[in-house]
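Quarterly update from the structural biology core.
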Amino acid sequence: MERPQTKPKKLISGAEVTAIVGFGRTKINVMVKNQTFPQPIKFSKTFVRWDLDEINTWVEEQKAMRA
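Predicted structure, tokenized:
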């Protein structure tokens, strides 16, 4: 039996997140703590990544709220 193929998730670094959204890490960390920004995936204490799809969805939600 074959497994259905799923598209692999693209995980990005904090530096890539800041480049996409235009906020610094301090602002992002505050928003993560307040749960107003996508939560990172913590692989270890120093290795953290975000799901690119979640970041893009968050950006689209922000754009939709301005209308």
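The chain has one domain: 11-65.
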